[in-house]
Specification:
The complex is a heterodimer of chains A (114) and B (109).
Chain A lengths: L4 E3 L2 E4 L5 E6 L6 E7 L6 E7 L2 E4 L8 E4 L6 E5 L8 E8 L8 E2 L3 E5 L1
Parallel strand pairs in A: 2-11
Antiparallel strand pairs in A: 1-3, 3-8, 4-5, 4-9, 5-6, 7-8, 9-10, 9-11
Chain B lengths: L4 E2 L2 E5 L4 E6 L7 E7 L5 E8 L4 E4 L2 E6 L4 E6 L8 E9 L2 E4 L3 E6 L1
Classes of the chains: A mainly beta (114), B mainly beta (109).
Chain lengths: 114, 109
């Protein structure tokens, strides 16, 4: 069974530029998560989708971050404009359903903002 | 507030046992998880324990849960160099995972 796929693996941009990340969850997984992991810290949830609806985006900086999962499968996370403090690893995870279901993580996209 | 705490570093000799500790805050967490992260990789689920259990063993891994003290530990028996990684504990809080800061395990020959 294929795991969670993410691209690109690495991205370097200058501040104020835009960037987008893509995630393809495990087939059949209804719930998709985006996490931000700053160096030396644990992952922090940015947004959670159930199919194509948002369940929790309370930690998403909505002035610059946006995410969508239009057909309930793939998802994109966008940052516009990027700030230096957005440098982090962006992890995508998926699970079968909600409520304490085991989450499976992709390899992450490492973003460096200069 | 939510705050899952772990010690930052642990160094052990190959073949010894490693014990990684975690203190969590939400007594209503139904599951508690241990994830492993190798350099440049995502998080790999190692094991989890249901909150009504106090111990779970899975090959070289033993998880101990003390609900009274909100303390979780992961014991790795016969630690190998391939076990060198960052280990995260996580608790469930209203359908989302709250991760600790991670413990970097270094295994030396």
């Amino acid at each position: 069974e294929a795991g969670v796929a993410q691209s690109p693996r690495y991205k370097i941009i200058e501040k104020r530029q835009s960037v987008a990340f893509w995630c393809n969850p495990i087939s059949g997984h209804a719930t998709l998560y985006w996490y931000q992991q700053i160096l030396g810290q644990g992952p922090k949830l940015l947004i959670q989708f159930q199919n194509n609806g948002v369940v929790d985006d309370s930690q998403l900086p909505k002035d610059r971050f946006s995410a969508e999962r239009l057909k309930g499968v793939d998802s994109t996370l966008k940052i516009q404009p990027a700030k230096l403090e957005d440098s982090a690893v962006y992890l995508c995870a998926s699970s079968l359903g909600l409520a304490a279901e085991t989450q499976y993580f992709g390899p992450g996209t490492r973003l460096l903002v200069l | 507030g939510e705050d899952v705490e772990q010690s930052l570093f642990l160094s052990v000799r190959e073949g010894d046992s490693s014990v990684i500790n975690c203190t969590y805050t939400d007594s209503s967490s139904t599951y508690l998880y241990w994830y492993k992260q190798e350099p440049g990789a995502g998080l790999q689920l190692l094991t989890y324990i249901f909150s009504n259990m106090d111990m779970k063993q899975d090959q070289r891994l033993t998880v101990l849960l003390n609900k009274k003290d909100k303390h979780l530990s992961l014991r790795i028996a016969d630690t190998q160099t391939g076990d060198s990684a960052i280990y995260f504990c996580a608790e469930v809080d209203t359908d989302k995972l709250i991760f600790g800061t991670g413990t970097r395990l270094q295994v030396f020959p």
